[in-house]
Amino acid sequence: MNRLVPATVALAVFIMNSTLAESLSIHAPKVLPRNQPLGDYSPLVAFTYSDLKEEPYTLRVWVLEDAGWNCASSQWCEKTFAINGEESGNGSLQMTSSFDVFDYPSLMWVARLFDRSGVEVASARAQAKTVAADFPVLKPIGKRVGAVGTEMRLVFSAKAPADDHIIYRLQNAPADAKLNAETGVFTWTPSSSGLHRIVVEAVSLKTKLTDAEIVSLDIGEAEEISGLK
Length: 229
Known about the structure:
Layout: H1 7-17, E1 23-27, E2 31-33, E3 45-50, E4 56-65, E5 77-84, E6 91-95, E7 106-114, E8 120-131, E9 137-138, E10 144-147, E11 152-155, E12 158-159, E13 166-171, E14 178-179, E15 185-188, E16 194-204, E17 210-220, H2 222-228
Parallel strand pairs: 2-8, 10-17
Antiparallel strand pairs: 1-3, 3-6, 4-5, 4-7, 7-8, 9-12, 11-15, 13-16, 14-15, 16-17
């Protein structure tokens, strides 16, 4: 299996880069399903960056075995993203793509940000453990269309083991949107048109495993929506 760099070297790099302008942080699941094949498992993973210069950057991410730093996921070893610092010096990459998890008890998310010259300017880590359990499977939601002034009502649902209990939570939702964490009922009356991308998560209270989807809510003026019918 591939390896990154020894932990002692990576720690030195992180300390050195902590004084630089650019910054990076990881928002990833702290609990992952152990020995999980590629399939429906797609929790929310996000990387937040700030103070980027007006130039292109490359973000490289790994999920590694905590002890030996072996690759712990075929989709995250390594995964590369292009970030255009000219668009905004601050931002976040959010994704809910499916990935597998190898049979290791303790893992480490490692993210490293490189400038256009290939120089590492920021890095971040986040630890995670794995559990031998099934994760909740969120029923696909897809893109939804709504109208200004008309209540939007959605019901989120997820499949889970019989002895488990699922709750629901939102990220990036409009301030006046409401979600019943127990029933998954989402209600919102939009006051203006626009495209909103919210994150819906199903969370296991027993294992803390999650499944997620980024949902687009496309809101138009009432007369526009009526004309489409």
